[in-house]
Amino acid sequence: MSQHIKKDSKKNQNLNIILTYTITPIIILSGITVVSVDSNLWGIQGIDHFYLEMFSVVLGSTVAFYAIVRGYTLKDKFSLFIGLGFFVSAIIDLLHGVFSTINLGDTVFEEYFIPQTWVAGRILMGLVMAIAIIKFGNTEKSKPKSLKREVIFYTTFLSVLAGTITVFSLSQPLPFITIDFLISRPYEITAAMLFITAAIFFYKRKLHQIQDSFYKGVLLVLVIDVFVNLIISYSSNVFDTAFTVAHVLKNVSYFVFIATLSFSTIYQYKIKEKSLQELKQSKKVLDEASIIDMTDTHGKITFVNDKFVEISKYSREELIGQDHRILKSGHHSTEFYRDMWGKITFGKIWRGEIKNKAKDGSYYWVKTTIIPMIDQNNKITGYTTVRTDITEQKEQQEALAKIDTKKDEFVSMISHELKTPLSPIISWSGMLQEGVLGDMTEKQKYGVSKIQENSNELLDLIHDILDVHKLELGKMNFKLSSFNIKELLTGIMEDYKIKYKTKCSFFLEAEDIVINTDKLRIVQVIRNFVNNALDFLPEVNPKITLSAKSQNEYIVISVKDNGYGIPLENQKNLFKKFYQVDTSATREHGGTGLGLSICSGIVEGLNGQIGVYSEENKGSEFLIRIPKNKTIELIN
Amino acid sequence: MILLKLLHIDDNKQILEPFEFYFDMNDNVDYTSCDDPVEGLKLIKEGKFDSVLLDLAMPKMSGYEIIDRLQQCGDIEKQKIIVFSASNQGTDEIEELKSKGVHSFIAKTTPINEILTHVNNSIGVMNVTTY
What is the pLDDT of residue A296? Predict the structure, then answer.
């Protein structure tokens, strides 16, 4: 919607420009043209022609001066070329005006020389405008690094062009052929065509869309110039109405150019003012928010702002001329500073966090950006450094790290203390179970087996808590080794077969592949999947299938059952910590809801993915996809 | 049958007791328990044992200190030192202790028969770790 409005308003704007700078002038100028056809309406004397031309020389030179200055300040080839073009054209106008005056009264000379040199000037002007628009109309691309070469090149080119056109026009008498009653000087149409071409390209290059009034002036000048040549093409005698009107209009076009250039200067000045204002504002903001200093190429401080003085607790006088070693805290290594200097001396921006020491011995942390200042010759002239005080943030980080360490110690201590009494429980119950301590009745054996079962569950829980803690702190280490996945799955399956052969059938569909990853963690994940599957088996024909298959650089390991399945809405939460699907089976089998979240953490740590496919009353398939070679994965 | 000489150092008598019962009835293992780590270090230095089950967290003298002292006097390789702890050692710690001459690691919550298998394996096989 807003885009439509934007498009519409742009269209309207374009229409306005076409109306103001093309259609309206064309209507007015057409009226003037019709009036000018009457050759007796307004004639002038030879001397008046001289004055008009001298006026053109002055106005043309002013345009040239303005445009060249504009070209220089804005580094704009377009203005520069037009400026130099006007300058050369002014010389032709001078030649045209002066020589026609010297030979004033010599009708043959006047009838020959005046139109010849006039048209030479007009063709030159037409070419200048057309070349400027076609060649340099692309404002984005026309920013040269140095203008010196451009000026020399354009001046040479334009002088040669002007010379050639003038010599050609003087040596080739242009006949006063009358095509019909109206067109007495058909070669003027050539110049008009050049201005029309320039105007077409002006629109094609979308120069009318540029805000700067200079471009509006160019358009207006082009339209007037077309009519200047059309009108003079009616002139059958020198000094007749068409002749006079054309000369006056030429001066008008120059005047229009001067006016728009002046407006443009004001416009450019306003832009500059605005950006200066913005720059001032942003400098003020930066100054208020940041700790800023500037140094020379050797790192000697040449400027510090108030914030710098405030945080370092040194006075400005104490800081100027010193290098940053004055603030060194001793926290960072020599390599740290070497890396920093290595970067900035190569003209690159360095970013980092630095611990500094203030004058009173207190420490502060600053987030630092060092920007090398580079001049036009690509030489580093010094460095500007912008810093923000992050001491509070750092202190919080340190406090958090301390809490993490304490938490770590606490979890380790708790797990150690919980496991210690479990050791004799497991040892004693094991001996009872094995009959080492004498025979037991069946009931006693059942009781002891329950003690063992629950001891193992408690042990698993302690391990789960430790794993969750490690994953949270990102401290889970992986031990990589190469092993055959088929052999591993076979081993796991055989263990389960011994224990659960009456409860469930086990199947294996594994490819014979050697993988390099953390074997024990993979066993932990698979066992977790199998233990979950065992808890939710159907009463009829329960089965669990372990599988492993290759998938490009990855291996997909899965545990599939034909159990109750998991409702779709619960599946996305399965791998979240403490999540349990609320079913009667869950309540019956208990658990903490940590297992799958740990599996997920392990798989993530092994650069893999974990997932589940499940359908209610049909079964579930838990799978992991991990790189076959974790070592390579890590390097990549 | 080869008689395996096993020393078990742990300051917690509750831990040692079931082992004493178990090995009392096992003629293949000559089991010695010791609840004083300082005494334990002396016993190790005498060099009478094939394997040593060594606890780490002992206030009087930690297992780490015993390992360091044995390493310093060059006696560590004379018997298989098996770290027998309730704590979980990280990979770095395991590597460090192994580099000091520790033979292997076994968790305290492992059933006794599996511990015996591990100790038996330690006589012939290096780098056995059971959790």
Answer: 92
Q: Does A437 touch chain B (CB under 8 A)?
A: yes
Tokens of A450: 């329950």
Q: Mind giving me the DSSP string for A155-218?
A: HHHHHHHHHHHHHHHHHSPPP---SSSS-S-THHHHHHHHHHHHHHHHHHTTGGG--SHHHHHH
- Partners of residue A610 on adjacent β-strands: A624
Instruction: Specify the fold of A42-277.
Output: Rhopdopsin 7-helix transmembrane proteins (1.20.1070)
The model's pLDDT over A490-509, given as tens digits with 9 standing for 90+, comes to 999 998 988 888 888 999 99
Task: Give the start-to-end residue ranges of the domains of chain B.
Answer: 4-130
Q: Which is the CATH superfamily of the domain at A481-635?
A: Histidine kinase-like ATPase, C-terminal domain (3.30.565.10)
Which run of H or E residues covers position A386? strand A380-389
**Using one digit for the tens of pLDDT, what is the confidence trace for A57-71?**
999 999 999 999 988
Sheet architecture: strand order including A350-357: A301-304, A291-295, A380-389, A363-374, A350-357
Torsion, Cα of A181, A184, A189, A191 (10° steps): -160
ipTM over 0.85: no
Quote the CA–CA distance of A601 and A472 in Å, as a whole number: 9
* Residues of chain A contacting residue B110, judged by C-beta atoms under 8 Å apart: 426
A426 interfaces chain B, CB cutoff of 8 Å = yes
Q: Where are the domains of chain A?
A: 42-277, 290-389, 396-473, 481-635
Residues A217 and A22: beta-carbon distance below 8 Å:
no
What's residue A536's pLDDT? Answer: 83
What is the rounded distance in angstroms from the CA atom of residue B17 to the CA atom of residue A85? 110
Average of pLDDT values for A528-540? 88
Nearest residue, CB atoms, A427 vs list B19, B87, B107? B19
Q: Contact at 8 Å (CB) between A563 and A590?
A: no
Is CATH 3.40.50.2300 what the domain over B4-130 is classified as, yes or no?
yes
CATH of domain A290-389: 3.30.450.20
Separation in Å, CA of A317 to nearest CA in chain B: 52
**Could you tell me which chain A residue has the CA closest to the CA of B91?**
A477
Yes or no: say if B67 and B97 are a contact pair by the CB < 8 Å rule: yes
Residues in chain B within 8 Å Cβ distance of A427: 18-19, 22, 111-112
pTM of the model: 0.51
Note whether A428 contacts B: Cβ–Cβ < 8 A: yes
| Chains A–B, number of C-beta pairs less than 8 Å apart | 59
Distances (CA, A) of A297 to A320, A597, B54: 14, 55, 62
The pLDDT of A319-345, averaged and rounded, is 90
CA nearest A195: which of A160, A232, A169, A166? A232
Higher pLDDT, A114 or A577: A114
CB nearest to A423's CB, from B15, B22, B88: B15
Architecture of domain A396-473: Orthogonal Bundle (1.10)
**Matching residue, tokens 């406090």:** A399
Q: How many residues does chain A have?
A: 636
Cβ-based neighbour number of residue A215 at 10 Å: 23
Q: Is the confidence at residue A40, as pLDDT, over 80?
A: no
Sequence-distant (≥ 6) Cβ neighbours of residue A163 within 8 angstroms: none
In chain A, whose CA is at the least distance from the CA of B106?
Answer: A423
Q: Phi, psi at residue A283, to the nearest 5°? A: -65, -40
